[in-house]
């Protein structure tokens, strides 16, 4: 979570440095959960940096059933100019019927993003 906080506050150099240190620790442990969390953090940092291809690459390595991942992946696609991929993910969120905190957080912003695109 420290990486997200740094990236959210646009302390991207600090976030990148901390992520590299974390990466070294995580790679040696072969823990799939840690790998997914790290890739999610790395994706968010790359998204904040404007490296949309790299962000998408990292997001594609994490939990494909996580609405949070769908949302930020959709943002990366949208900012990259791949509107159709973004629309598919935003619609997937808007039409999702699961009961989750992540969905509660990203549903409204997804619907707003869809209105901007269409």
How is this structure best described in words?
The chain is mainly α. The chain has two domains: 1-62; 66-118, no CATH class. It contains seven helices and no strands. It has helices at residues 2-8, 12-27, 32-49, 52-59, 67-80, 83-94, 101-117. It is globular and about 40 Å long. The mean pLDDT is 92.
Helix and strand arrangement:
Layout: H1 2-8, H2 12-27, H3 32-49, H4 52-59, H5 67-80, H6 83-94, H7 101-117
Helix pairs in contact: 1-2, 1-3, 2-3, 3-4, 4-5, 5-6, 5-7, 6-7
DSSP helical segment count: 7
**Mean residue pLDDT:** 92
Number of strands: 0
Give a quick account of the main beta sheet: strands, pairing sense, barrel closure: none
The helical percent reads over 70%
The first-to-last residue Cα distance is: 33 Å
Report the β-strand fraction as a percent range: under 5%
């Amino acid at each position: 979570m420290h990486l997200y906080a740094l990236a959210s506050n646009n302390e991207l150099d600090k976030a990148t440095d901390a992520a590299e240190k974390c990466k070294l620790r995580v790679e040696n442990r072969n823990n799939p959960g840690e790998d997914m969390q790290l890739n999610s953090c790395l994706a968010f940092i790359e998204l904040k940096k404007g490296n949309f291809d790299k962000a998408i690459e990292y997001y594609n390595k994490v939990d494909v059933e996580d609405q949070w991942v769908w949302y930020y992946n959709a943002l990366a696609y949208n900012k990259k100019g791949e509107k159709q991929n973004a629309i598919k993910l935003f619609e997937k969120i808007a039409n999702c019927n699961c009961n989750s905190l992540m969905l509660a957080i990203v549903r409204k912003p997804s619907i707003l993003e869809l209105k901007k695109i269409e």
